[in-house]
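Support request, please re-run this one:
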Amino acid sequence: MGWQTTGDVAEFLAAAGAFLRAERARNTVFLTVTETMRANPAQYHGRDDADPARLPLFGWWTVEGGIRGAFMHTPKFPVLLTALPAAVAADLAAQTLAGRPLPGVSAYPEAAEAFGAAWREQTGGRVAVHRRMRLYRLAGLCWPRPMPDGVSRPAGEGDVALLTDWLTAFGREVNDMDVGDLAASIRERLSYGGLTLWEADGRPVSVAALTRRAAGMVRVGPVYTPPELRGHGYASAATAEVSRAALAAGAEEVLLYTDLANPVSNAIYQRIGYHQVEDRVVLSFSQRLPPAGDLALRGWGC
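Re-run finished. Output below.
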């Protein structure tokens, strides 16, 4: 009963895999990240193995009758929660993960607020809303009309420098938290054909990525077009092409997350056939103390 934890992804999946797969769309990040860990352990290990707090940690919450929740923390990323009661999320922050360096939490709003409040009470740090996200599922692919000029092609080793520059710029633009070694992440994606470029006039103009397939499902993202090349429909075409390729390769569900602060991307994905599933929130944690009277969480109402 209660929380059980492990640093072993195989042990975690043996215990909680069936629970996660039962709602594979809602648990898409759990399933795709653990699939990457299984297929390419070096992607998340070997960065600082001497410090256990900098290695991945997983946990599952059991009550009478079975597993009812899970968490995953890959350092440099926020801790990720499945659906959990607020009191259980707060206990996780205050007890099980106490003392572990956490940059934030990604969860459903009520659980995120409870987790963040418990972390703040314990550390004296600051909690802020970092991003509100919406999960979409492809219901039926609709190609952009009109289609932009150009063609798609798989990215390759010769594109690593360009993609590193683009995805660094993407991270700055969306205010991503530290994502580590981008070149290594890009090469991991290249290893299974997970990056597609859209080219116009013989040069790359947009990129769309896919995760590894897990539990019959893949997730699109990131999608990026340099600012000076936007407004031509390249991102729509690239996204539609990787969505088509995922279905052709046997994916039963194709998903993607958007930032709710970006109405353009939300509209693009809906036009090509993606329908809303649910919303989540990411909170960021900081040890910097705010001024007196600024300790309350703000901006709720997801």
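The longest strand covers residues 126-138. The longest helix spans residues 109-123.
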